């Protein structure tokens, strides 16, 4: 195991499973972000390349086609520029990005309207989602083993093809030269993810992602950290979401991250990465079944863990048992504002 400049561990899942499980748990507790070395065993390089090609086709569809698939309260569909604000307290305008969210596929069919431009590609999108599901299950199984709770996490996921908040999301950040932004603006506001784990795919050479370190400073997260330059595909970035953090009483950290413009002062750059072009990324947000109860994980390490800053109002202090579905709805209402008001 090696580390990157943001100090995120790089883990090879093909190592001895007991050791890998321990490495994953330690990385989840210490950093909340983990690079999974991608040698093509779980998600072949060609599948990642194909997914990015599909993303360009999908987000390149005529705007009327995308508008007809606008995001709904089930979190599926298209969000236009500025429609989502990930950090409402600090952002004047919304995020500088557009995105298309797919919910779960059943028999290779999306359970939502899709742009006619990609009508013939549904099975290819579904195949990529299946690869992501399988990798998530593998990681959740290993995290359970590392905490000595066996299939506690994995068995709460993917029990049936639908019935969870799982989302495959394709993102496009337009070239900075094409938008009128100020030095205060940000491509994606500071946030932590809502689900159990997120898989993030990025393109070589495209800068922008930063994580908030424990000391309160931001560190860039290179797409290709040292030691992975010759791998067939950049490592897959795993990120612990709020729900897994809640479930483990804060032992697993759901780390705050954001995507910045090149002009945004305080960040340092990564050699070989630029932000001048349109930036594409793909996120797979994995969620347990909606009815999964977020009861404390029955692990010795979780029981012995004392969360920092236990004060009144802190959700960890109250330990109210929510379902995964309730937890997701709570978080979505915060970042989409009016979308949820109108519908209720
Ligand atoms: O585009 C990226 O690199 C990150 C996107 C992200 O953090 C998100 O959609 O939750
Ligand atoms: Fe995120």
UniProtKB/TrEMBL annotation:
Domain named Fe2OG dioxygenase: residues: 163-288
Record's keyword terms, sorted: Iron, Metal-binding, Oxidoreductase
Pfam families registered for this protein in UniProt: 2OG-FeII_Oxy (PF03171), DIOX_N (PF14226)
Family in the record: Belongs to the iron/ascorbate-dependent oxidoreductase family.
Superkingdom field: Eukaryota
GO biological processes: small molecule biosynthetic process
Species of provenance: Pochonia chlamydosporia 170
InterPro entries: DIOX_N, IPNS-like_FE2OG_OXY, IPNS-like_sf, Oxoglu/Fe-dep_dioxygenase_dom
Lineage summary: Eukaryota, Fungi, Dikarya, Ascomycota, Pezizomycotina
Name of the protein this chain belongs to: Oxidoreductase, 2OG-Fe(II) oxygenase family
Keyword field contains Isomerase: no
Entry's Gene Ontology molecular function annotations: metal ion binding; oxidoreductase activity
């Amino acid at each position: 195991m090696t580390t990157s400049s943001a100090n995120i561990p790089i883990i090879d899942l093909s190592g001895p499973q007991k050791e890998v499980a321990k490495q994953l748990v330690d990385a989840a507790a210490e950093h909340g972000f983990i690079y999974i070395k991608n040698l093509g065993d779980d998600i072949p390089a060609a599948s990642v390349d194909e997914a990015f090609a599909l993303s360009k086709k999908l987000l390149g569809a005529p705007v009327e086609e995308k508008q007809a698939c606008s995001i709904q309260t089930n979190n599926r569909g298209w969000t236009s520029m500025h429609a989502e604000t990930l950090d409402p307290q600090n952002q004047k305008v919304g995020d500088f990005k557009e995105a298309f969210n797919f919910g779960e596929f059943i028999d290779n069919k999306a359970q939502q309207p899709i742009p006619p431009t990609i009508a013939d590609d549904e099975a290819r999108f579904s195949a990529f989602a299946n690869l992501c599901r399988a990798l998530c299950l593998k990681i959740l199984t290993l995290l359970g083993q590392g905490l000595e709770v066996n299939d506690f996490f994995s068995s709460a996921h993917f029990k049936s093809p639908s019935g969870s908040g799982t989302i495959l999301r394709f993102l496009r950040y337009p070239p900075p030269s094409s938008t009128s932004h100020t030095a205060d603006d940000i491509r994606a506001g500071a946030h932590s993810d809502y689900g159990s784990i997120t898989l993030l795919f990025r393109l070589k050479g495209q800068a922008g992602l930063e994580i908030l370190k424990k000391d309160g400073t931001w560190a860039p997260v290179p797409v290709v950290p040292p030691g992975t330059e010759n791998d067939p595909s950049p490592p897959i970035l795993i990120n612990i979401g709020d729900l897994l953090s809640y479930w483990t009483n804060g032992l697993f950290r759901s780390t705050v991250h954001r995507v910045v413009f090149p002009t945004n002062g305080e960040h340092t750059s990564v050699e070989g990465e630029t932000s001048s072009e349109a930036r594409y990324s793909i996120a797979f947000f994995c969620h347990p079944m909606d009815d999964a109860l977020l009861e404390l994980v029955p692990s010795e390490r979780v029981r012995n863990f004392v969360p920092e800053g236990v004060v009144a109002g802190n959700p960890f202090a109250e330990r109210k048992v929510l379902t995964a579905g309730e937890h997701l709805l709570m978080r979505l209402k915060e970042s989409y504002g009016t979308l949820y008001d109108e519908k209720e």
